[in-house]
Amino acid sequence: MTYPSYPRLLSRRDMLRRAGLGFGSWALLDLLLREGRLPAALATTENPLAAKPPHTPARAKHVIFLFMQGGPSHIDTFDPKPLLNKLHGQPLPPSIVAGRQLQFTKMDAAILGCPQTFSQCGQSGLEIADTYPHLQRCADDLAVIRSCYHESFNHSPAQYMLNTGFSRMGKPCLGSWVCYGLGSEVENLPAFVVLATTGDVKGGPPVYDHGFLPGTYQPTMLRNTGSPLLYLDRSAGQRDILNLVQGLNQEHRAARGADVDDLSARIAAYELAFRMQSAVPDVVDLNKETAATKRLYGLDDKISARFGAHCLMARRLVERGVRFVQLFTGSSGADDWDAAHADNDKTHREMARRTDKPIAGLLTDLKARGLLDETLVIWGGEFGRTPIADGRYPDKHAGRDHNPYGFTVWLAGGGVKGGQVIGATDEFGFRAVEDRIHVNDLHATILRLLGLDHRKLTFLFEGRQQRLTDVGGEREFTDRLMG
Fold this sequence. Notes:
By secondary structure, the protein is an alpha/beta fold. It is built from 13 helices and 17 strands.
């Protein structure tokens, strides 16, 4: 009697060896996809925030945008104009003011001198107002752009311009574009986080909104009082409930066909929220920092403590892989640079006291931890201030009006060569006249530092390939920044 022959059964050792190699391959594939090292065609569409490769080699991986809400005066901070004190009380020459509009002030208003004193700081000799003694010690890390400009002299349109590249609301902000282009490096924290000192922004949520981009790229806003995020505690059986809800959502999405962006964003948001319940409590627990670190950020001073805590939080977030963090100083009259209308000198001294030590602490801490090279730090407001006085408050100390025609933004880290000045305003500080940098040019340059080509970073909306820089951004100056 003959018996049929059967293939030899796998031994337990063979089975573990073969299966192990297979599991390892899948694990490697997943890791490579998360790091953006495989072609986009191989990436799963289930996670729209999966890491994506940049268009070109990147100098920066993360961004911290320190937005000075209300518009700080460039001529009282980083762009000294000694001529103002010599001509204090006289009108500006007609050639300087020709063709310009202001919010409140007439063009024949008197020149307002600058009471601030400036020092040449660091090895570079960069000039910084003495109201920033801590930041003066970081001078060699700063690339100060003195020739930024745009066309909007009201707060909200100007804030939209600085954040979205347009003076109208409804467009995606810089943070959303960056996350759309690069995805996220971390799965248990948001890719884009917003921190506002008082929880309010003059231009409202459209300043930091995702606009027409899918909802996946909207920011997570951390609260200022109580728990930074609600519902961080997990309840029993929460994962089972979420699995049921997600299954129903996915069935609904499959039945709907093409129009699924909002539903896909919600599915991704539910999963992120569940993972954040484990990660966020650790990130926001500043008690784990040393007393020396807290002092570095000014947490021991009640005037600088709130903004200092946000700067420290920003460092903790990028340290854990968060792509973009935006901080807003003050809002709607509280801790706001806009008080400069009535008392410019007092406002700038107070705001410097609130922000100087925290910002210097952030730069120093990032540098000490080896994070500054890969983290681009941006400082700036929606516009600068006029060299002429706002005449609406004759019974108070003189203030300055809004000025979008020439103002200062500085960058640090992320491959930027510090200790340099780019561009210049005229001798009164009213208009950018040398190496003029429009906000679209600034955005194109920031994207390039992150490895993104602003011409390729597009999204089809209303029948047109939209981009952050619209039809501008052709005067990108990355090479100059990197030295």
